[in-house]
């Protein structure tokens, strides 16, 4: 026996109104459990929405260019009744379809069409007063790195034309080439045009496409670097005792036990320090045209993870409520998902502070770029044994370099120095974390 079920967009974290950049199925297609149905694009990554079960596509409710949120209708699927577990068959709310994107092991659920038709939000173009743009115009704009929300649409009914995107780019180039602004005019950077060099004139070259993650993270990093007044403070901390403790825990654990990582200790110490200095766990906001500081009373800590496709920042939620072992195992799991390209938006959103550790690779220091809208980031490089004067003699001690980049609109230098000192004190003597 089979029945027609309506499939909705699952839980996609804090994202709303994500553009559909590709619909991967059409009526008549047979899909298996976990087959991708469509691709969404957020400002951090693109993601496939997988099928919650096997069946035949009856109708597709959305099209490329539509914007969708959790619960938006995607399509109807003719499914064998036995394909879904009995408890899911009884589901009557759209929330029952909330399976994380890219999470094949998540529970399957589907809803008979009749029971959700009235409640499930439909995928609509929610651009409102913003211009409408066809997928081809959006794709053209994307290729040129143009944010369509900034383009003035001149087509019929407010539709954006290819020419509108071209005009936007030409105007931007003219502005770049224009002479120096009058004195007192501080609104524009008036930079020189980017050097246009034919590299092949000087030797052999190879052109390599940039991964989607690199393109998206690059644009985010460039914005953050240009818009945030960064300052980086450096500190060195003696982690000889902490490292001995970590090694001992790992020895006690045996082969299949959790691996206690330095990253997990750093996250735990960062949370304790954020509690002592709440302005570092904040974001700049705006209310009635006035800047305000939004202090967060939750501690979701992101960590930079290097993947073959580029840099991503998965987030450990409620790190204040977790032990170091749990943080270590969640970091390991998220880093694995990151490397396999399996992170969903819910894994990467809501962070309040980031730790970027290059310690396993090397280096003596670097200036990490703040992960907006956060206001600070901790960079960690390789700990090294150094001779340290103990008052009588030089002793070999393990010294860890720390770097804290902070947003000078929110934090000042003295607070940053105190933050870093507090963090260093905790790492130097981890017992202090209980105080
Ligand atoms: N000093 C010395 N050694 C360190 C160290 C440090 N600060 N941190 C980790 N190590 C050592 C560990 O002891 C471990 O060695 P063993 O396997 O012998 O115990 C090894 O390095 C690997 O450590 P790990 O398993 O704990 O992994 P990690 O914490 O170093 O890294 C992760 C995890 C996800 C942070 C890492 O894989 C990664 O992606 N790092 C890059 C982050 C990045 O790109 N940041 C830059 C962002 S700005 O562009």
Structure commentary:
By secondary structure, the protein is an alpha+beta fold. The protein is 26% helix and 25% strand. The chain contains 10 helices and 22 strands. The protein has helices spanning 86-89, 113-116, 135-143, 162-177, 212-227, 240-253, 262-276, 324-339, 345-348, 413-428, and strands at residues 2-8, 18-23, 30-31, 36-41, 46-50, 55-60, 67-68, 73-80, 111-112, 132-133, 159-160, 230-238, 282-287, 290-295, 301-303, 305-307, 310-312, 315-316, 353-357, 376-380, 384-389, 394-407. The strands form 6 sheets. Strands 12, 15, 18, 19, 20, 21 and 22 form a 7-stranded mixed beta sheet that branches. β13 (282-287) and β14 form a beta hairpin. Bound molecules: oxidized coenzyme A. The site of oxidized coenzyme A has 19 residues, from α7, β16 and β19.
Quick description:
The chain is α+β, with helices and mostly antiparallel strands.
